[in-house]
Design a protein that fits this description.
Blueprint: E1 6-10, H1 13-25, E2 31-35, E3 51-57, H2 66-75, E4 77-88, H3 94-104, H4 114-127, H5 146-153, H6 163-172, E5 175-180, H7 188-191, H8 196-202, H9 206-217, E6 221-228, H10 239-242, E7 246-249, E8 253-262, E9 265-275, E10 281-282, H11 286-297, E11 302-303, H12 304-313, H13 318-330, E12 334-336
Parallel strand pairs: 1-2, 3-4
Antiparallel strand pairs: 4-6, 5-6, 7-11, 7-12, 8-9, 9-10
Helix pairs in contact: 3-4, 4-5, 11-12, 12-13
Length: 338
């Protein structure tokens, strides 16, 4: 997105140097990097009106005061801005928390260096491989490199959250929950088979549904979008708005083709879209598939009228073309650009 300016902020000089190197190698001239502490944000050049989007992943839960850090982010978020946030999930990381607690028992009243703690903690992780870690995503903890190992077990500060706690954290900072990064990961209809459990969940409020799902699925991280208190999702696109609205292919969407080699050349047989953690979506409508391939190969912003015309040129009736466009927006394959 060359028309957007990005600011990368971190307290870790090594990480910043690596990011600068990668940005330079990619020829990115619209990125600025700054060393600053999230607890104060001293040295951060905040644009007039605040940042439109703030992406904070894997940071807040390592602060001595996550609520204070989140409040600093809210202060520099624009009134209309969005905060993409990932913090540790309490239930998913519980096995690691138990190993960390066990390791701490071996250093009573001490302040050992990392060099002293790492070999002891690795032995603790080996002891827990077939018990505490059995069947979890962390079964390889004893073998990962030192950086990953310290991140799992030996951080100085670490706070994990459940759904109720993260919603309270947002409220304390003056922020409001907007949505999960991937709503499908919290969708009862998708994750719970038809039956008495789903029936009872259907009668519950959304927060209760989420609390149920996190207890069953045990996510290691909670990924969500927040905004200034009182802000929420924009209304769903209507048929009357579609023609004048502007769209682009969702940057998170990966459009893949299945091809067949014939004597006449290579022929596209299928088009599917992969988006975040969702199951791949097969695009069965030929005109919709063609429009997505155009946007994949020539990333740009199109009006709804242009997308409808692309489908019309392939013989799609106007009503069907409009329905396809609205469905692509609903599935977040097309993103609003206005």
């Amino acid at each position: 997105q060359p028309d957007v300016h990005f600011t990368g902020a971190d307290i870790n000089r090594v990480a910043l140097d690596d990011a600068r190197t990668q940005a330079s190698a990619r020829g990115l001239g619209n990125v600025t990097f700054v060393e600053c502490d999230l607890m104060t944000l001293d040295g951060l050049d905040v644009p007039a009106g605040g940042f439109d989007v703030i992406h904070s992943s894997g940071v807040l839960h390592h602060l001595s005061d996550p609520a204070a850090g989140l409040a600093r982010l809210r202060e520099v978020l624009a009134p209309h801005g969005l905060l993409n946030l990932m913090i540790y999930g309490k239930h998913g990381r519980e096995p690691l928390m138990r190993l960390a607690a066990a390791t701490s028992l071996l250093f009573p009243g001490e302040a050992p260096s990392l060099a002293e703690r790492i070999p002891v903690a690795r032995e603790v992780a080996r002891l827990g491989r077939d018990t505490v870690l059995a069947g979890t995503r962390f079964g390889d903890t004893a073998e990962v490199d030192d950086v990953e190992f310290v991140d799992r077990l030996l951080n100085v500060n670490e706070t994990s959250y459940d759904v109720g706690a993260v919603l309270a954290l947002l409220a304390t900072a003056g922020l409001g929950f907007v949505r999960w990064i991937e709503p499908a990961d919290w969708d009862v209809a998708r994750l719970v088979p038809a039956g008495p459990v789903r029936d009872r969940l259907a009668a519950c409020d959304p927060v209760t549904q989420w609390r149920f799902l996190e207890l069953i699925r045990q996510p290691a991280g909670l990924e969500l979008v927040a905004g200034q208190a009182g802000n929420g999702l924009r209304p769903a696109l209507t048929a009357n708005e579609a023609a004048q609205a502007r769209f682009r292919l969702n940057p998170e969407a990966v459009v893949l083709t299945g091809v067949r080699h014939t004597p006449a050349g290579v022929r596209t047989e299928s088009v599917e879209v992969r988006l975040r953690t969702r199951e791949p979506l097969r695009i069965g409508h030929q005109a919709a598939a063609a429009a997505l391939l155009v946007l994949r190969d020539d990333p740009r912003i199109c009006t709804g009228s242009e997308l409808l015309a692309m489908q019309g040129d392939l013989g799609t009736a106007p009503d069907l073309a409009l329905g396809v466009l609205l469905e692509l927006v609903k599935e977040e394959i097309l993103a609003r650009a206005d």
